[in-house]
Amino acid sequence: MSSTVNMSTTNRGGTIPSAANVSKARAAAPQFLRTSQLRNGGISPLILPPASPKIVQFLNMADYTFHTASIVPVDQPIFQPLPGVVTFESCEPFHTAVRNLSLRNNDAVARRVKIEQPDSPYFSVELVTISSATKVAPGIEITYAIKFTPQDRADLTFDLIVVTEREKFSVPVRVIGSRPLISFPDDVVFEKGPVHANLEKTILVRNEGDRAGSVNLFIAPPFKVEPSFVHLGVNQAAQVCTPLVCW
Length: 247
What we know:
The protein is mainly beta and 247 residues long. 0% of the residues lie in helices and 40% in strands. The chain has 2 domains: 3-43 and 179-245, Immunoglobulin-like (Sandwich), CATH 2.60.40; 54-176, Immunoglobulin-like (Sandwich). It is built from no helices and 18 strands. The strands form 5 sheets. Strands 4, 6, 8, 11 and 12 form a 5-stranded mixed β-sheet that branches. A 4-stranded antiparallel β-sheet has the order 5-7-10-9, with no helix packed on it. It has a 3-stranded mixed β-sheet with strand order 2-1-14, with no helix packed on it. The termini are close together.
């Protein structure tokens, strides 16, 4: 019996042939276990929050302006953050990365706005737009530079606080750190074997990413995976057996 096994860590793909479909009459025909049929259940992506700004506090507009009426609905901030989520990826430790955050005045009159300095040793805020005006005209954007200096490559979440004349609202900052990258061989070929014999192949699973990771492996008969759970450090590799019963 000759069989070819295609290995992978993705969740998409075709159907695994069952033992009932592999008859003795087809013992000499190759069996295929497609790349997508070995599912990786150990790595979860970082879920980003919705881009809708969250109002955390309402202020008394009369303390800051005579224009207390606004065309912007009260459940939305007067200033629109662009982008809605500030994202940092692939940042090197002890090197400063910069992302711009613009704030657009959606009201019909000029308004004040500012970003509070973050209470964090990793983040700082600096005004990019240079203007002598103390208010932002309708439809105009003001831009801030968000600076991030990490000490490692870990995931990090933080909220910037923006202050307008009517409310305080938060803008999420998300740092996507290192990720494991689990690699498998593209194909595993089983040589010919007698019917009802047990065949076994050993493959090498390697973490080519820059962070440790765990992988749960699941597969349907007639194939098996042993062990079904593997934890790999950076640049570590482990052997995984794939037994196959010839029918």
